[in-house]
Amino acid sequence: MEQTEKKLWGGRFQKAADEAMEDFHSSVAVDCRMAREDIQGSLAHARMLGAQGIIPPAEAEKIEEGLLGILAECEAGKLTLKKSAEDVHMNVEQLLIARVGEAGKRVHTGRSRNDQVALDFRLYLTRGTDAVIGNLLALQSALLSTAKAHTRTVMPGYTHMQKAQPVTLAHHLMAYFEMFRRDVGRFADCKKRMDEMPLGAGALAGSTYPLDREMVRAQLGFSAISRNSMDAVSDRDFCIEFAAASSVAMMHLSRFCEELILWSTDEFRFVEMDDAFSTGSSIMPQKKNPDVAELIRGKTGRVYGDLMGLLTLMKGLPLAYNKDMQEDKEASFDALDTVNGCLSIFTRMFASLRFREENMCAAAGKGFTNATDAADYLVRKGLPFRTAHEIVGRLVFNCLEKGKAIEELSLPELQAVSWAFGADVYESISLDACVDGRCLPGGPAASAVEAHIGQSEAWLAEARQSVRGAKD
Q1: Would you say 25 and 17 are in contact if contact means Cβ atoms under 8 Å apart?
Q2: Which of 248, 269, 388, 429 could staple 378 via S-S, CB 3.0–4.6 A?
Q3: Under 8 Å between Cβ of 226 and 293
Q4: Which phi and psi angles does 418 have, rounded to 5°?
């Protein structure tokens, strides 16, 4: 611990910080990952200071040269930061002064760590959001590939975890595609509110120097500058929104994982997990556990905790900056790391799944999933729907007593319940007819699902182009 090292803010202090306080106060272990963004922000700020004549242009050039050298070390993974310098900002400034001398002491002219950290945080989370969107799009691509191969793989659809009506695996998977499509939209929308450049807000009240905020904004690629200096340094809505979007995305992943876990049980046998994404038991040699899916399901609660931590952190803070806000990054970074890690491993696991089509189809043929179609058949014969519903309900009761499916009843048995049944009923209530008849847009019929897949492929291509454009 370098207790004798002079703090850059230490002019009014006569006593060194307590060693325990140094450990408690330092945020380097967390905010070190924003070193690249901090250096880039300092580069833009220094160039602006020189262009405005706030510092001598020659010294601005020396600062730029020094910062570029530090950036090269950072990108090569050779940058060493010290806990005694408190945070990434002071570390970079100390390294700059050591490298270029007195000129380095001018880099902080017209700014505060308050607007500096707000800048770094927005830059970092913007890049992080792009990574999350990229991972979501990769998962959606995997979903589309599998869905295209299973537009006629019939399976039971459920409500209340009870068999309801037959659908297809493709239709089921495309429901998740839509969930993740909304997630992409949420992250993209969240990113819009990160896109404000706070540098120039100072500690809270701006600056008396003639700073060219627009020049800094343009260099860093922001669309706008912040409109209020107090809000600029105290706003953390963008990281709360990010954690909220992450929580919803994790909820979707968790729902998907829950279904895959159920489907992999011996009771369902709809899917088999690949050995590469499963584990065994230390005592039961027959076990093949879906640990990846279970762990993602568990990590969902972790991201919820990050969101609640951020909301609780900010709920009682007066304007403007408060030291409490140092706690914002750990939760945000954890949410970012967790959602990216889960999306990445889930996509690889999903691509390795083996779906048991025969078991899905057999399950769809049980549980009276064609009962609604039997009622619809009677409606087409002229009966009111509510009457048809009652008739089929009685049929189901009779079938349960006899241990038969509706289509296993003879025509006389059907006609004993209603005169409206004819020989054509069997074709009308077959699984294929039940699925193919639901050809409205958004339905499970192969034609409807194929149209949905085609629209989704076009959307995915556009979304990928948008992400590439953002990176450029």
Answers
A1: yes
A2: 388
A3: no
A4: -155, 135
Q: What is the pLDDT of residue 7?
A: 64
Judge whether residue 415 has pLDDT over 70.
Answer: yes
- Average of per-residue pLDDT across 35-44: 98
SS3 32: helix
- The alpha carbon dihedral of 144, 148, 150, 154 has a sign of positive
Q: Which parts of 315-356 fold into alpha helices (H)?
A: 328-351
Specify the residue for token string 């279970």.
294
Q: Which of 26, 141, 145, 160 is catalytic?
A: 160
**How many CA atoms are closer than 13 Å to the CA of 147, on its beta-carbon side?**
29
Predicted pLDDT at 125: 98
Is 160 one of the catalytic residues? Answer: yes
Q: Scanning the structure block, which residue is given the tokens 């949410």? A: 335
Instruction: State the Rg of the chain over Cα.
Output: 31
Question: Is the bond preceding residue 103 a cis peptide, omega within 30 degrees?
Answer: no
Tell me: pLDDT of 2 over 70.
no
Distance separating alpha carbons of residues 213 and 190, to the nearest angstrom: 23
Residue 210 in contact with residue 51, Cβ under 8 Å? no
Does domain 371-429 match CATH 3.40.50.1240?
A: no
CA distance 408 to 368: 11
3-class SS of residue 274: coil
Are the C-beta atoms of residues 212 and 52 closer than 8 Å to each other?
yes
Given the residues 145, 281, 447, 466, the one annotated as active site: 281
Domain boundaries along the sequence of the chain: 19-109, 126-162+171-204+223-360, 371-429
More confident residue, 40 or 21: 40
Q: For residue 131, name the pLDDT band (cuts at 50, 70, 90).
A: very high
Give the tens place of pLDDT for each residue, 319-358.
999 999 999 999 999 999 999 999 999 999 999 999 999 9
Say which amino acid occupies 187.
F
Q: What is the DSSP string of 42-61?
A: HHHHHHHHHHTTSS-HHHHH
> Residue 224: which H helix or E strand, with range?
strand 224-225
Q: Is residue 281 annotated as a catalytic residue, yes or no?
A: yes
Helices (H), 315-444: 328-351, 357-364, 371-380, 385-402, 411-415, 425-428, 431-436
State how far the Cα of 418 lies from the Cα of 426, in Å rounded to an integer.
15
Convert 342-362 to b/e letters by CB count within 10 Å (16 or more is b).
bbeebbbbbbebebbbeebbe
* CATH 1.10.275.10 applies to domain 19-109: yes
Instruction: For residue 72, give both structure tokens.
Output: 């090269």
